[in-house]
Every structure is written in structure tokens, then in C-alpha cells.
Amino acid sequence: MKLPLSWMRDFVSVDAPVEEISRRLSFAGLVVEHVEKLTPGFAGVFAARVLNVEKHPNADRLNLVEVDAGEKGKFKVVCGAPNVKAGMTAPLALVGAQLGKEPPLQAAVIRGVQSEGMLCSERELGLSQDHAGILALGADAPLGGAVAAYLHLDDVVLDVEITPNRGDCLSILGLAREVAALFGGRLRAPRLRAAPSGDAHDGAGFAVAVSIDAPDLCPRYAALAMTGIKLGPSPAWLKRRLELCGMRALNNVVDATNYVMLELGQPLHAFDYAKIAGGKIVVRRAGETREFVTLDNLTRTLDPNDLLIADPDKPLAIAGVMGGLNSEVSDATTTILLESAYFEPMTVARTSRRLGLRSEASYRFERGIDRAGQVGALIRAAELIRKIARGREASPIADFEPRKAEPREIALDLGAMESLLGASIPPTVARSRLKSLGAQVSTRGKGILAVVPPSFRSDLVEQADLIEEVARLGGLEDIPARLPERLSALAPVNREREFITGTREVMLGCGLTEAATIAFIAPADNARFSGIQIAARPVKVTNPLSAELSELRVSLMPGLVTSLRFNLNREARSFHAFEMGKVFRMDGDIATEHNHLASVSYGPYAISAIGDQSIAAGFFTMKGILETWFDAIGISSHISFKAIEPADAPFLHPGRSAIVSLDDTQVGLIGELHPAEAMRLDLNEPCAVFELDLSSLISYGFSPRKTFEPPPKFPTIRRDLALVLDRNFPADMVVKTIRDCGASLLESVEVFDVYEGTAVAAGKKSVALACRYRAKDRTLTDEEVNRIHAVLIEQARMRLGAELRQ
Amino acid sequence: MKEQLEEIRRRAMAELSDDASEAQIDAVRVRVLGRSGELTEIMRGMREVPNAERPAIGQLINQIKREVEARIEALTEKLKAASLTKSLNEKRLDVTLPGMRIARGHIHPITDILEQMLAIFESMGFEVAMTQDIEDDFHNFAALNFQPHHPARDMQDTFYVDGGMLLRTHTSNGQIRVMEKRRPPLAVVCPGRCYRRDDLSVRASPMFTQIEGFMVDKRGRITMAHLKGVLTEFVRAFFGTTAVRFRSSYFPFTEPSAELDMHCLLCDGAGCPVCKHSGWTEVLGCGMIHPNVMRAVEYNPDEFQGFAFGMGVERTGLLKLRVDDMRLFFENDLRFLNQFPALSGGVR
Ligand SMILES: [Zn+2]
Question: Which CATH class is domain A2-38+155-183?
């Protein structure tokens, strides 16, 4: 809301400098975003009345004009403007006047006649490009007074951000009231009285009848007919005020309604009375009416619940949103019907949002206007229209209020206020702050105030609202800062957070840098990187920013791969990163979210010393990271890796990838990107990736902290074993089978070598294993171990169908 | 014979000088101690020595033998040590060459900032609760006193998704989720991602991180003065400044509502282009929890009260790290990320 201080000063006198006004408003929740100090483009120009106009003796198109500039004196000037006539008030530039960047005005002799000054057009004053005639000032312009001041050209305009709860501050009067309350000034609210009915309005009798069929949406509707209207431009001062507030001047009638809206906050609408059948207004829901042409000449589709202003035959306006083309005020209009109504915020908000039609009026209705301000605004508008459009009231004010505002009285318990704020505010101070906002305050009992909020503060509903007002006007600086006593009980351990933080530590330690990517991705990326669940259905965004961001990721992989490419394009040699974040998928028709951990690793991983071979990222460096992590969180023994089938993850290398399972549940994938995918990304080295569902690991409920077992007291004895097996037989199955043989005293089995080559048959490999035996209570003898091991070898060979390699 | 022995000893010791070479030492060993060396020869001639002298001569032979052996051993040790020193010196490393390593990863700045914040709040007795990103209207809006169609909803442009849900526009849903399940006293911070319909740009991102905090207890136990105390302490701990101010503001879910400003970190309050010459920067929004929020989670507003606050982590990060472009947080440019520590926040 733009607040020209000159306009504000119509209602309140404040001596404080602009900076102080804007500071206090800002601290009270009305943030002044910008202060604009205006300067007029001229000086030495005064208001003067034209007394007499006669033809220039030597020039047809020029006149000799005598003007009266009050205490500045009377002057004779030569004037060529066609609109100059006796009785008008116009700006007079005297000798020495400064007009824009021109040199100071000098006395001149024009066609043999001395001119003592110049009557100015808007263009000469730098107000507009209008040079058709001299500027007509209002009759109220003080003669001899500076035109710059009269036109408010030396104004200061505050741009105030109005929060959605403060509809009452969407007016000059509302902001003036705040300023008065903040500075302890007295508010001079305009005294609005209707012209005495009967004699003031035209005897011709323009009937105004109102029928409100939807009192739930429109509790009050007031209207007034005015006739004798002469549509034309508004006076300069009024145009100027509209423009300072960011509105464009159109014609005197529309300008007058806008002026009143800006001043008092009540939106008004002017209909062409001649277009209203029988002068009868019906306020109703759209119902069967499906379409309506608004005054921007667009056909709007209506919802049955939209509120319409109609006559008995047809709709005339969408209530509070926009008028109709069929009843628009035009040059031919002589009689108007002025509407001043209260529409429920919700109905205006719903309709204007649905139609995408936002106007200054709908903006105010949505935020709640003064529940009781309708008649006053009509009176103010009539007064203006009389003055600037020659209108006369043609009817009494028709005021219908089928649903009265419920009286609101709120009890304010001063003790409760103190215990909410943690500061004590004297009752007299609280009382005077509330009164300065227009509330009626009385004492109801000990420490209790009975507060009736003013009609324009629909946001004040309960005690907390009043406490806020009292605190706000005093400034929050008055409230001390204290630390609370500690809460009595310790917070429960947050296992999820512990897990996430611990996981991050391991990943960082394994050389992965933490990345963050945006959850919105392109459908093509979701299709390409299907994530852990191959058939996961992506969650679609109903109102995406763009097609490229129209789905939520089912996998963290696309984001990480994009980041890899981003870095390689910027000369990076390697990229080892992980991300912990949410992925999304449809579960039936419910959108679900899952915490994932994923990583991309590309380029040299273990950097060697100069002269040695570096280790490049690949399946086994990645697997090593996962194993380190599984160890760290204590679940290694529940984890298994199984070679993927190509259909499991088409984006992974079919021969160098695995499914990761926790017990028997798949929790993730690990592998190298499929060469086709790598080629698409223009990668020329293997790119290793993994992705895991953290949610299922977190909910697994393991505990990394076990009870203590003493270190063994007796040594192990190692016996090796080499088995020749099919090339594709997984090593972990070998280990598992040997363990399952159940040899007593066998403590561990470990693969220490795998050999393929000329010493074994084609399609075969030799797996060498180290078996370690230990007893808890004694040192084992060679003979004892040899006996157990011989049995084990025989069993393993049989169960695996393997040959022993010597 | 005795003289002969003394002569052997004298000559051997003279030849086993401090700078004797390995060859010289060997020569002495062979000549004196060898199988057919001088001492062996004399032993053989012992038969000719009178019985009475034999023990003395024998002793002398042994003594000379021990002396020469000891001397040879000492010299040999010395030679070995010298040759080791020499060879070690020849194989010196260039210690200035880079080491072999698996580089430690770098923590993401958003995490870093977030963890530092959480550590401060945890030390003040807050617990951390994680809540959901996909939300329903009730938990993101209605329970937080956003009326249907109310213009306050326009303050946050919402993403809607399949299944009639939305992406939370703030972490304030955490307040509702936690309060629904538990009873006061509560002191909780809820970090998480939020989503609003803003294009990714220097100033904004469609996904960002917030931290919501709240404290609720019996009426009078948690006041607006405590809100000011806790947040002032937070700003002091996190930014290192005590120059803060509270301005009245509006949020549907708090009342009174306030905004917390602190002295601009660049100009320390003097005014500069970054703070638009005001000397202040906005840090967070806060207020006393609105009675309608209490009602939504079935707390009696006459019995309980508390405060809540919320702040943007990226925004705060921009201030503290002096990062000037929001996009840097989501591009994962290593040249950016590598500037952040390889230790998690909160530790420092
Ligand atoms: Zn600054």
C-alpha cells in the first residue's frame, strides 16, 4: 500500500521525521519497504484565478488575460491556450519561475504586448505530455499558493507492506490510525453525514431497490443513485493522488470511487443506472447463470456459488471482483448507481482465484473491509462526485443489512497477558493502546478488561489477538529476554538421527563428498534410473514448474550423475560423492517417501604416491565402502550381495553389479554403470554407484552396541584349502557351505585367493580358503586340527561338488 | 715363547687400528686366530714348554685370543653401522612429494550449517525430530491456522502431487506432527526439506531446508521473554553477535508474531548495499503459538502455551558463509564443496 504523507496528514498531524514514521510502522508489523521523496519539476508557480479574457490586439490565436494571484497580486499575461476562460483557476508562472531545465522565466513582449508571466499546461509543469490547454486547478486551490504544494508534488510516499491479517490498513485512513496510535496523535476521521434526505435528491425519482438473496455471502448492501453526471477527466490534484497510490486515472466517476476506496478502504462500484432494469439490484448466487462478460470484454465461466450482482433480468457484476460490460459507465451515462457493499472474504477470494482476476477491490474484500463502513463511503463518494462530476443525489441511500454483525466483546485477562508475554504492562497503558486502535474498553472485574474491537478489525477475535496489539504498539523491545528453566526430563535418543549422522561420518571417511540435489526431475530420468524398486511408479507433481521438473525422483542417481557430469565439464579428474535424501514413489494411490543413501564414484579413488599405480573407482572400491559402513553399524553378518539379472537394473553393468540384501530383503543396488549409459554420459572410465533404502535399515532395529566378549586366550591354527569350482560359482556360497559343514572349533573361513588360468580347466576357477581353528580352553594340537580339517575337506568337496586342488 | 706371544698381540692390535678395513681385519683374523694361525701354531708347540710354565702360557694365549676376538667384533660392528648409515643416506625420500591417500570427503555446507544449529539447540535442551515431506492440507495449513482461501496461503506457493497431497511449504508441519503425538513439556527442533514454487535462481530454490523449533509447557512457564532469550542466545552462539532486535510481524500460526533481525555481518550495523543501508538483516520468524494451533492438536490453550520459530538454512548459510548464489548449494561443484570442512558440524 502506497501512503502519500500529504494525504495521511488529512487525518493525523505528526511532527516526527519521515524516517521515524517509517521505523515505527516497521516495528509495529507494517514494514515500510521503500520511502520515495518526490520533488516538483518547477518552482515559482502559483494558483491564479482568471478574471478577464480579451483578444490580443495583434494576434488572432492569442488572448490577453488578467489574473488574480491572491497576495502575489494581479497580473496581465498573454495566453494562447484555447481553454482559458474567466473564472477558472490555473497555474501562473511568474518572472523568475523555474520550469524544468529551462532558464528562469523572463518578462517578455509578445506581439507588442507585455506579458508578466505565463499560464502553464501540464507539459510545461512536467506533469504529463498534455499540451492541449492550460491546466485547470480546482476551485479550492488557494490563490497565490504554491501549485507544487497544492498538487502534492513535494510529497513523500511510503510503500508499506500490508500483511494478510491487516485489511484495515489497505487505506490511507487505516494507516493514519496506526500512525496516530504509534505516536499518540489524535485521529481526525472524516465526518460523513448524508445530505438531508428529501430536498437534496432529484425530484425526478430514480428508484433504487435492493434484494439480497444470499445474506450469507453479502450481509450488507448500500446503494445510491446520482444523476446529472458529466463524465470527464478528474481534477489534477485527484489524479495526482491516485497516481501516487499506483492507480491510473480514468474518468471522474471511476476516479471518485477509487479515491474513496484508497482513502477509506471500501471498494465501490458505479453502474450505469439506465442499464439496470427497474433500478432493482438483486444480490444472488450465479446458480444457473453460466457465463458473464466482464468489462475487459472477456467471457467468464461461472461457478453456481459465485456471488453476482444482478437486476431482475441479467447479471451486472461479479460481486467484489469485476463489473460487467453491460452496465459500464460511459460518456453517454447521466445517471449512475453507486454500490457500497460488504462481501464475505471467502467468496471473493474463491471466485477471484478461480477466475485469475485480482483487482484492488477483490484484494480488499479478501482481507476483510470495515464491516460497518458502507454508508459512510457512499456519502464520501457522493460528495466527491457532486464536486467533480456535477452529479446530484437522485435517491436516498438504500441500505440493506439482512445479517447484522454479531457484537464482539472480548475479555482481556491482564494476568494472562503477563504470563504470555513474560512482561508486565500497566492496565492503564494496555487500555489506552487498545483505545487508540478504535476499540471500546471497559473494566469488567479485577484485572479483566472488556474490549469491543472496532468494526474494521475483523482480525481481533480472541484474547491473544488483543495481547498482540498491546505488545505490538509498545514495541517488542519492552519485553525482556530470559532463558527458560531446563525441561525436567531428558529427550529420548533419536535413533534415526544417530544413524544418519553416523552414516555420514563413515561416507566422509571413505572419501565421499556430500552432495545435495533437487527432488524434482524429468520423467525421462525417472524412467532411466528406476532406482531400487524396478517397477516404482513415480509421483507426479500436479503443478510443476516445468515439464523437466514434473516428477519427484524415485532415485538419487540422476541427480548425482548430473553432478558428476557438471564437474567433469569443469576439469574435474574424479568425482566421489554421496547423497542422503528422500525419494518418492506411489504406493497404490498414496505418494510415499523414503530415505535413501546413494553414491557415485568415478576416476582415481585411492591416490597412489608418485610412481605407484593409483586405484580407480570400480565395483570393489564401492563394495569396500559399503562393507566398511555395514561393519560400522554392526550389520555385516546380515548383509549379502547377489549378482543382478539384467532386468533388475537396466542402467547397471550386467556383469559387474549386485543386489544388496539385508537378511532376505533387497535393500539396495551396487555396481558399475552400464557401458551404454556411460557412453550416453560421455564417461570413458568405469563409474561405480550404489543406492540403498535407509528407511528399511533404520527400521530394522539393530543396535551397534553389543555386550562384551573377552579377547581369546589361546592361539588359532590355520589350515588352507583350495577348491576347483565353476567359474560363476559365488565365493560367499563357498564360505557359507563350509561354515554349514559345522566343523567343531572352526572359528573363521576366509577367501584369500581366486585363480583362473592354465592350471585349472576352462570354465573353472580355484578358490583358496583359510580356515582358522581355535578352542576356548586350550591350545590345540596339530593332530587334533588335522583330524577335524580332513573331515571338513571331505564334506565341503562333496557338498560343493568340487575338486580339491593340490 | 712368552715374548713371541707378546709380539703376536702387539702386531695384531696395531693392525686392528680404528680405521682398519674389512680386508685388514680379515687378514688379522686368519693369521692370528685361523686354523693354522699363529696362536694355533704356538698351541701345537706347547709340548716343548716346561710343565711349570704351561698354565701361564695357556692363560696368555686365551687372553690374547679373547682380546683379538673382542677387538675384531667391535671393529666389525663399527664397520657395519658405518656402511648402514652410508646406504640409508643414499636412499633418502623426497619427503615433499604428495602422500598416498583416500581423500576424506567434504561435508555439504547445508549439512554443516544445519548441524551447527542443531548442536546449539540440543545443548539448550531441545530434541531433534524428523518429519515428513509429503503432507496433507491439515498438517501443512489448516492446523497451523491457515483458513481455507485465506490470502495468507498465497504467502507460500504450494506444490501439489498425485494422491491429493502436497509438498510441505515449511517445517512447521513438524510442530503439528509432534504435538499430536505427545504432551508438554516439549522442546523440539524439526529440520527438513521444504518446497515452494520458485524457480532455481540466485535468490531462491524450489527445494530448500528449514529448521522449525518450538517449546511448549504449562501456561506462564514458557513466555515471549523466553522466546527472546532462547533466540538471542542462538544468534550469539551461531553468528557471534548480540546485536539483535525483534519486530512485530504476522504469521497465521503465532501470536504475537515477530521477526528477528541481527546486525548485518558485513557492515556490523553501519549500513551497506547488502543490507540496503539499514544495518540489519532478517534472520528468522517467530512468535507465541496461536491458540488455534493448540486447539488443532487438542491442547487446551488456557492450560498450555509456548513459542515457535522457523528459519531457512540456506538463507542463514548465505549470511554466515557469505555465499552469494543459492544455486551453488545444489550444483555440487567440487570447487565449491571442497571449501567446506571434512568434519561434521557441531564438532567445532
Ligand atoms: Zn550491511
Answer: alpha beta
